[in-house]
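Supplementary Note 3. Input sequence used for the single-chain structure prediction.
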Amino acid sequence: MSPPAPVASPEVLALGYARCAAITRQHGTTYYWGARLLPAASRRHVHAVYTLARLADDIVDLAGPDPGRDTAAALDAFEQSFWDALAAGGSADPIMAAVVTTVRECGIEEECFSRFFGAMRTDLTRRTYESWGDLLRYMDGSAAVIGEMMLPVLRPGTDAVAPARSLGLAFQLTNFLRDVGEDLDRGRVYVPQEDIRRFGADPQQRRVTPEWRALMAFEIERNRRLYREADDGIPALPGASRRCVATARVLYARILERIEAADYDVFGSRARVPTPLKAALAVRMVASREPMRLVRADRAARQPSNGAWVSDDPVVLLDEAGAPVGEARKSAIHHDDTPLHLAFSCYVMDPEGRLLVTTRATSKPSFPGVVTNTVCGHPLPGEDLAVAVRRRARSELGVDLRDLRLVLPGFGYRAVMNGVVEHERCPVFVAWVDDASISPDPEEVDGAEWVPWTDFSADVLEGARTVSPWCAEQVPMLAVLGPDPRSWPAGPRTALPPAAALGPDAEAA
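The predicted structure, written as discrete structure tokens, is reproduced below.
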């Protein structure tokens, strides 16, 4: 059933859309220049969605660091005016009439607006966010949902919800990084507190220090990763929409380059892309046969070059139940928000009951220089776990394993170091070698030593030895199995993640 005709007259609607266009041009120039590449009928919808978000945001932001009851009441009244106009199909207020006409004509889901206003209300009371996960939960309603609202306007040919959400997140994180100084004036800090502590930075000083530069470089790379995730959805858009989104995407990402060019000083002035450059990019997008060429040439589209993977094999991506949902290169998924994927861990013993303890190479992008159990890695898509463990032990340490036994089939963990996350379902094995001779690969291992298992486990349990986060979690579980690894019972195959294959080449129950 088609929606009923709007209550507002054509004159009121025309005035409302004109005011939305003016507000977008004044405050959201990147959106404005991107939307210029759309047909007029679609362009007005972009202006309307932007204006609703802008007006709600202004109610909170213009109140300063202490919004108070009057601000809360104003936001409540504004939200209620939206719901009333939506229920009536129009409004005497030209802007609200335009907004609800867009919502009804495009079929934007109403729950998007519930999430959006909920996030705006959060800004009335919350000043900081402890973790990236906390900030993401806030941005679901303040940013990702804006991408979802735009989808019915842009009409992609396939499901593009995830890339649209990533683009909304990328845009808002760019705003947060650009506006650190302004947000401090409002009493808010949107950079996660755990990141601020990790780098030893202090935004309250409003000074560019080495610690502040390191923090901002980390957040900018996180931001660019979101842009790369969003890029996957742009080719699914029809021609005009593709040019619109590609233009906004490139222009917004260039704000990050302006921040870098200012030596990460976001306290004294606002990083901006000049209007002539915005207009020039819009012209290039119109003239380009394929806008994605300009997107792929953008700096944010490039994978970071910090740290080199010795091998960049594909890994198996998992859902929360451990079932496979795809595959991706190691270098592409290991970042600040690494998705769950399949791995393995192995404790290699010699005939004297000593464990081979290794120190990861300091050149590794993930957990460099960490002392850990013998060998860890990822099975290739379709590769048997036992084959993968033996392959990795041979290439990394030059050892051939015998009597490989599955002992902790259901182990999994999430850990972070220097901003890089490991997030794995990681079945644990124990294995033996016939002698203690090893030949470590220096690109993988900085050092290796044989340590009696009883000494190693006791040191880890007592906190006397610092080891990798996964090893620190595994050792107490292994200790429960008994003091002698030779007596550890084999774990059940049925407890393995559904994505894991394990043939007869390893002992398992």
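The chain has two domains: 10-301, 314-495. The longest strand covers residues 445-452.
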